[in-house]
What does this fold into?
Amino acid sequence: MLRLLWSLLLVVGIANVSHAQAKIDAPRMFEHAMLLFNRGDYQSAYPYFSTLIYEKFADPRAYYYRGLSAWRMGAYESAKDDFRSGAELEMANPDGLGLLAFQMYRIQGAARLALEAARNDARLAAYERREKERWQRFSGATENVTAPAPMPPAAEKVE
It folds into this structure.
């Protein structure tokens, strides 16, 4: 009977611990991950950024810094994937573009170039999406919209 009671308490305790772990304090976890990253402990920072991403932390910096951590550990393709995902999230809410660029000023070199390339690609894709929507809205077109026809060649000058 005592063994059954202990087993029951153990199961209830494990359930409570797993439930408590399900609720994370995302801003605090992000601060801790940034502390590790800024110390140069990229291997320890990476799982914190991954947890934030898994928990749907809606901040592109989680993707960017996870990518930067991966970059510093030599996983360049994984880093580029994170840069792309972060850039797409950033373009979904473009209000903080200037602030984010300022916060990333410490990141320099090849990693920054790869990050900015992903941001520029996402910016261009968002612009093209908005322009296509605008074109459809103002032209009344509901089907596939194409670019306007090119201008005819200029007439030759007669002397």
User: Anything to note?
Assistant: The domain at 15-138 is CATH 1.25.40 (Serine Threonine Protein Phosphatase 5, Tetratricopeptide repeat). Confidence is low (pLDDT under 50) at residues 1-20.
